[in-house]
Amino acid sequence: MMASDLPETWTAELILKGMDRNYMAGLCLCYSRRMMAYMQTVKFLQAKEREYFDTLQFERRIKSYLAGRYAGKRAVSFLIGEEKPERVLIEHGIFHQPVAVYPGSSKVQVSITHCDDLGAAIAFPEAVPMGIDIERICPEKKDVLERQLTVREQDLAKSIPFAYETALTLFWTVKESMSKVLKTGLTSSVGIFLIEKTEINDRVIVSHFVHFPQYCAASFIFEPYICSIAYPKRAVWETGMVRDLLDDLSGLLKGGRV
Fold first, then answer.
1. Are domains 1-127 and 129-234 of this chain identical in fold?
2. pLDDT at res. 94
3. pTM for the complete prediction?
4. Across residues 190-203, what is the average pLDDT?
5. CB 129 within 8 Å of CB 181
6. Buried b (16+ CB within 10 A) or exposed e, 175-192
7. Residue 53: alpha-carbon gap to chain centroid
8. Residue 257, pLDDT score
């Protein structure tokens, strides 16, 4: 964890076992209820990031930008062994996707998400494209989320052992995480990201795609949030580490200790 004037952070190293070698990925989550804690992360922004940041006017957007950038810089620096997160620049790509730029020749990229007071990012080698998304479970969004699913997907959501509103949010994060792998976000039709089936193993929900059979997404429920990470199906990794980390964070959130 960082000093007390900064958001609380949690990091984890993920080992992805490929067909012929292992790959490493870095996960970082940050959280603070205090806007001032996120304002302390402005010092990690580079000039290009600061130029964009200075155009932001609304507190919610300011917080989400800082949460995402802080988590992204911490995830990348953690993975590449860089002691100073401020040396990592996170630019916008053509689809507004994050692009990590940093000293050295390592080919590492990053996926970023933010929700409420929470920021998260996963840094990964370009050889193993990944995407992450976190959403709050909001029953009032039920109708909106339901309209994004086919009838078959709605039936699938009703068949898994969670409240229907939870399943709808889960499927949304699955699609969002996959869209980040493609670096388009949901500027593409959500119909492209049709979910074929789900499997549940030790509270980790794994979803498979109709049109992207080479990928899957692991989802974790840590109320009131859901986190999904999309990754190549051939890359096997220990999802329990992320589940346990998010369980710990959920406990802290419920206890009001962060």
1. yes
2. 87
3. 0.94
4. 92
5. yes
6. bbbbbbbbbbebeeebeb
7. 21
8. 54
